[in-house]
Amino acid sequence: MTLPCSFAPPTLGPVQRRVTGSYLQPLFEAALARGVTPQALARAAGLPENALKPLPESLAANDYLRLLDAGAELAQDAHFGLHVGEQVRLGTYSVYGLVLLACRDIGQVFEQTMRYEALAHDLGRSQLSLQGGHAEYEWISHYPQASRHLADSVFAGIQTFGRWLAGGQLPPAQVAFTHAGSADTSEYARVFGAMPDFRASSNTARFDAALLALPLPNADITLYPVLQQHAERLLGQRKAEQARPAIVDAVRAAIVRNLAQDRARLSGIADELGLAPRTLQRRLADAGASFQQVLDGARYALARDYLRQPGLSLLDVAFLLGYQEQSAFTHAFKEWSGANPGAWREDALRRAG
After folding, report:
1. Cα angle: 85, vertex 119, 130; to 5 degrees
2. What is the pLDDT of residues 194-205, one digit of tens each?
3. What's the maximum distance between 2 C-alpha atoms anywhere in the chain?
4. DSSP single-letter state for residue 209
5. Sign of CA dihedral 89, 94, 98, 101
6. Which of 35, 54, 280, 345 could pair with 307 as two cysteines, CB 3.0-4.6 Å apart?
7. pLDDT score at 53
8. What is the pairing mode between strands 134-141 and 124-131?
9. How many other CB atoms are there within 10 angstroms of residue 2's CB atom?
């Protein structure tokens, strides 16, 4: 196994930073265990009350941070971040978690974490370095001004998931946080098995490098190539989305603003962006897209979000997407997804529980 001495996290604009719906689940479970509902969380974070149930496919990272702080305040839990991390399960990390499950040892788990962490969230990035007989894991937050609950949740989640992968307890690591901790630090000692250092220069966990060779008892390494191929495909799609020219995002945003008023037409969108229709078409073509492709993509993404909201009828969804007839929406959705929107909704709501 070859581990990089350092890892440079990719840069990502703040507008693009997201967390997946599955990564939200531990936050919700920690909140519910303390009597706080998703609806109350949403209201406290300034989101629509129905924005979190069922779980969205993804959420803006800034919204996630507001939910984390709202959960701590509503639950009156000074250690809410630690308790969120303790709710981490295999499904939290989605495909990336399945890849970790198929790793042969702890060292490969760290390698794959550095590679695929972006498939779960854009809250920060991991790096691992070897220093003599020790390994040092560092988590570099994209939000250094966020409350301590963010770093606490990440490290407690790693601890919880690591123990599960290893099939039992792991030797305590020397954990350090950049934040100042809290008045009562006993909960940190309980979660991590030893008292962390606070007001450190970085968020790190230092441990014996021999632990990297520890095999995972329940790993199914035969699945690794298939899962890695799937993860690589998703990672490629994500990088392509991040590299998408600004004109595509601008058109998509304008379309979303105008769909429900049935004003998402080329001429109107071009006028809103201060461009002539032909100029807009040319700039989209230069970006490898067409107006119809961007329109269909926006409608499909919104349709999936709307269909997860049981309070909206199929006719409501059709009108919100700018269709005059439900049949036109049904026909388009079948072309996009291969399924009838009603059947797609039933399956999505069933999986959401």
Report:
1. 70
2. 999 999 999 999
3. 68
4. G
5. negative
6. 345
7. 78
8. antiparallel
9. 5
224-242 helix and 106-116 helix, angle to the nearest 10 degrees: 20
Query: Two tokens at 270?
Result: 């071009």
What gap in Å lies between CA 353 and CA 341, rounded to an integer? 18
18-20 and 58-60 beta bridge pairing: antiparallel
Q: Average of pLDDT values for 139-154? A: 95
Q: Which two tokens stand for residue 127?
A: 């790096």
- State mean pLDDT over 266-275: 91
Token pair 């709202």 is at which residue? 70
Mean pLDDT of 278-283: 90
Q: Which residue carries 């039992």 as its tokens?
A: 168
The residue to which tokens 């981490």 are assigned: 88
Q: Are 265 and 277 in contact (CB under 8 A)?
A: no
Interacting residues of 269 by C-beta distance below 8 A, sequence separation 6+: 251, 254, 255, 258, 280, 291
Q: What is the pTM of this model?
A: 0.69
* Dist. CA 72–CA 83, nearest whole Å: 10
Region of 275 (left: φ > 0; alpha: ψ -120 to 50; beta: rest) is: beta
Query: Could you tell me which residues come within 8 angstroms of residue 195 by beta carbon, excluding any fewer than 6 positions away?
Result: 185, 188, 189
pLDDT (tens digit per residue) in 309-346: 888 999 999 999 999 899 999 999 999 888 899 999 98
| Mean pLDDT across the chain | 88
Start-to-end CA distance of the chain, whole Å, equals 40
Q: Is 5 exposed, middle or buried (0-12, 13-18, 19+ CB in 10 A)?
A: exposed
207, pLDDT greater than 90 = yes
Tokens of 172: 């305590």
The structure tokens 């794959």 sit at 112
The pLDDT tens digits for 58-88 are: 888 989 999 999 999 999 999 999 999 999 9
Per-position b or e across 105-115, b if 16+ CB within 10 A of its CB: bbbbbbbbbbb
Whole-angstrom CA distances from 297 to 194, 255, 289 are 49, 10, 11
Q: Where are the beta strands (DSSP E) in the chain?
A: 18-20, 58-60, 124-131, 134-141, 174-176, 204-208
